[in-house]
Write a sequence for this structure.
């Protein structure tokens, strides 16, 4: 299984965001968001951890196309707290014979920083090709909550799946053993590998494992969701992997597991993000 | 006796179910699937084998096995391959099972004098390494090289071991009869051959979430036949 990427990616775009904590409140200090990247203004919610800011990532192009090469770099200075999400799911369009899209997200979390990187799922349309990479680097005392989810969508019911999907999530940091979760998949194999579920995802917390049992309990209570918890104590990671019957169940799983994790870590139930 | 004949004799020895590899104590998530009513009959067992177990071995275990075989007993290289295998084992129960099988296998081969086994066992014996080294495909590659098996023979042994372990678990769980088990093995043979005749992926990876989640869901509060 090989995802063809290469040489002639015609739409290479590099975006970046920088956050810092000033007097206990996190601010968006710098941004470089060329088309198709776009962001909303920062929001604050009462039940969030001290100083946390919420920012929505958007796309002004209506999704990811067959020749996109998108790279987003996010940096949190020490002590910053950020909830970074999307306004909606990301549609990965039919590659129509092109090499396939590549999306790389690099997350640098400074000492004692907290980042929740919780994008909505990628919708893999018939014929789409995507290589998705999420690389997180954690400084001492930093925590990250991270989600990665996909669903297959064949709106015309033609039985034509996405073409290829390559996923990679890595977490590194000084003094910690690395974590790397990766796969390559042909769309035709999706339903076989998922046991018939149309949606798959995972959510992890690195830097604090206390939330694991609560995350699994929340996922287990949801209809149409099949989930398991992996506790990687040497890397201080709790990871819930899950399958969902449809997009509604997937969306509910992401929101519910996040809320359970936040409650377990802070004692506060977060306010739902408007989308 | 030719070297090839000798290698085949050793291949049969280490691939036999009587060889104390420890692999038969694990069900790769099947016990949970059976207990949850998700694997009820021979068709379900076949679907798990061909849709989860074999693809996971092909895309994840096989590249590590190949790399370890190519290391030719070089301790530092083997330790590096083990470290990468650890980094990529994101399912704790499957990782633990792979380490237990690998370390058991390494111990047996050290005791029967397989070249390189005792040296690598000594190298990864420190307490801090116990939870992050000794993975099954790495040890399989090491011992295959030590026994003079080709990489293709070593792969064949590794794939045979995981397949037989899974089918044996299905029989012991009462979801396959002895004849059904042989029919399943016959039916899976073509896919196994195709896996072995196709180049391994350049980078290990796995996407078998159905069986992986099942392995993660093993209920430690209740008596289980298998460790995964």
């Amino acid at each position: 299984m090989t995802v063809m990427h290469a040489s002639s990616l015609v739409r290479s775009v590099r975006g970046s965001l920088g956050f810092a904590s000033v007097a206990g409140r996190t601010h968006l200090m710098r941004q470089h968001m060329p088309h198709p990247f776009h962001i909303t203004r920062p929001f604050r919610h009462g039940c969030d951890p001290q100083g946390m800011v919420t920012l929505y990532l958007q796309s002004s192009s209506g999704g990811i196309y067959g020749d996109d090469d998108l790279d987003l770099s996010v940096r949190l200075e020490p002590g910053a707290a950020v909830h970074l999400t999307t306004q909606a799911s990301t549609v990965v369009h039919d590659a129509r014979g092109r090499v396939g899209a590549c999306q790389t997200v690099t997350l640098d979390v400074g000492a004692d920083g907290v980042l929740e990187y919780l994008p909505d799922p990628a919708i893999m349309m018939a014929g789409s090709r995507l290589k998705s990479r999420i690389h997180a680097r954690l400084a001492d005392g930093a925590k990250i909550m991270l989600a990665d989810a996909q669903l297959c969508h064949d709106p015309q019911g033609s039985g034509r799946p996405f073409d290829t999907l390559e996923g990679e999530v890595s977490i590194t940091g000084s003094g910690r053993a690395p974590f790397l979760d990766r796969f390559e998949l042909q769309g035709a194999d999706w339903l076989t590998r998922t046991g018939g579920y149309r949606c798959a995802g995972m959510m992890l917390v690195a830097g604090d494992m206390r939330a694991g049992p609560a995350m699994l309990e929340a996922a287990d209570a949801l209809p149409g969701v099949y989930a398991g918890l992996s506790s990687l104590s040497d890397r201080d990671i709790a990871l819930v992997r899950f399958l969902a019957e449809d997009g509604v169940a997937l969306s509910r799983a992401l929101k519910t597991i996040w809320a359970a994790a936040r409650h377990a870590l802070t004692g506060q139930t977060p306010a739902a993000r408007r989308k | 006796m030719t070297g090839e004949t000798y290698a085949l004799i050793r291949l049969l020895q280490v691939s036999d179910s009587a060889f104390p590899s420890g692999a038969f104590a694990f069900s790769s998530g099947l016990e949970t699937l059976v207990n949850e009513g998700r694997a009820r009959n021979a068709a379900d067992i076949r679907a798990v084998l061909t849709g989860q177990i074999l693809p996971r071995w092909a895309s994840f275990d096989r590249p590590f096995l190949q790399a370890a075989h190519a290391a030719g007993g070089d301790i530092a290289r083997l330790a590096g391959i083990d470290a990468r295998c650890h980094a990529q084992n994101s399912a704790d129960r499957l990782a633990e099972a792979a380490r237990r099988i690998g370390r058991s296998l390494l111990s047996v081969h050290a005791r029967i004098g397989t070249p390189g086994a005792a040296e690598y066992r000594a190298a990864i014996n420190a307490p801090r390494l116990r939870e992050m080294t000794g993975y099954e495909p790495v040890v399989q590659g090491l011992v295959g090289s030590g026994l003079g098996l080709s990489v293709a023979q070593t792969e064949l042994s590794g794939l045979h071991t995981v397949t037989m372990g899974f089918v044996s678990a299905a029989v012991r769980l009462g979801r396959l009869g002895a004849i059904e088990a042989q029919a399943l093995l016959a039916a899976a043979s073509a896919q196994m051959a195709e896996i072995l005749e196709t180049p391994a992926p350049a980078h290990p990876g796995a996407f078998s979430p159905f069986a992986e989640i099942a392995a993660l869901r093993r209920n430690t509060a209740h008596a289980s036949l298998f460790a995964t």
The two ends of chain A are 36 Å apart (CA to CA).
